[in-house]
Amino acid sequence: MKFFVDTAEINDIKELAATGLLDGVTTNPSLIAKSGRDFLEVTKEICGIVDGPVSAEVIALDHEGMMREAEILRKIADNVCIKVPLTIDGLKTCKALTSDGTKVNVTLCFSANQALLAAKAGASFISPFIGRHDDNGFDGMDLIRDIRLIYDNYAYETEILAASIRHGVHVLECARIGADVMTAPPAVIKGLVKHVLTDKGIEGFMADWAKTGQSL
Ligand code: E4P
Q1: Catalytic positions, please?
Q2: For the segment 105-121, what is each residue's pLDDT rounded down to a tens digit?
Q3: Which of 117, 174, 112, 113 shows the shortest CA–CA distance to 146?
Q4: Is 39 in contact with 197 (CB distance < 8 Å)?
Q5: Which residues form ligand 1's pocket by a CB distance below 6 Å?
Q6: Whose C-alpha lies nearest to ligand 1, atom 10?
Q7: Which atom of ligand 1 lies closest to the CA of 184?
Q8: DSSP character for 129?
Q9: Which domains does the chain show, CATH number per domain?
Q10: Sequence-distant (≥ 6) Cβ neighbours of residue 168 within 8 angstroms
């Protein structure tokens, strides 16, 4: 499973990229606002840190506006992936951009039928929002499961990019189901390494090693 980080914070992206475990980055207008940075500048900086796709979301809600913004965004770097909302205009834009070889991430997906439409529009990625789905009384994992089944039925190449991930259990379930990618906040990704028995084990080994009086 590929790991994307869901943030526009440069230091977090650098830290995770340095581990070699980071496959891409996703941003959205809220994350850009949170960073306090200029949209185009910060996107360019992120694209220079990671080799993989960096999702940058259009702001326009109409097809013509989305195409105009996509034109600006895709000039930033070769690894920019244009993020469009799951609307008729977003799907139309997705079809036009992907026919032209541009990578497109269709975002704000909350149903398997929406995901089916995105695949038909040639999306490179579909972003089902697990956490927000759960928040509203639905099972986000059922959504991932349904999309996996449908995409496999028709051998769609659109990658399932599980989004709105809130904790490690979401990551684990996505991996079990076979989501292609997951995007999570930096703290969730860093938290995956934590286990009390790992810490305890290291502590024990260090204490015993000290008793040997040896050094390496
Ligand atoms: C995905 O691309 C979105 O940016 C993100 O995962 C949304 O997550 P949230 O529901 O935690 O805001």
Answers
A1: 83
A2: 999 999 999 999 999 99
A3: 112
A4: no
A5: 6, 26, 28, 107, 127, 129, 131-132, 163-164, 183
A6: 164
A7: 6
A8: B
A9: 2-212 (3.20.20.70)
A10: 188, 191, 192
Beta bridge partners of 210: none
CA distance from start to end of the chain: 36
Predicted confidence (pLDDT) per residue in 42-88, tens digit: 999 999 999 999 999 999 999 999 999 999 999 999 999 999 999 99
Distance (Å, rounded) from C-alpha 129 to C-alpha 105?
13
Q: What is the pLDDT, as a whole number, of residue 66? A: 98
As a whole number of angstroms, the distance between CA 45 and CA 41 comes to 6
pLDDT digits (tens, 9 = 90+) for 156-205: 999 999 999 999 999 999 999 999 999 999 999 999 999 999 999 999 99
Predicted local distance difference test score (pLDDT) of residue 144? 98
Instruction: Return the closest-CA partner of residue 59 out of 36, 93, 34.
Output: 93
Full DSSP string of 35-102: HTS-HHHHHHHHHHH-SS-EEEE---SSHHHHHHHHHHHHTT-TTEEEEEESSHHHHHHHHHHHHTT-
Crossing angle (nearest 10°) for helices 140-154 and 168-177: 20
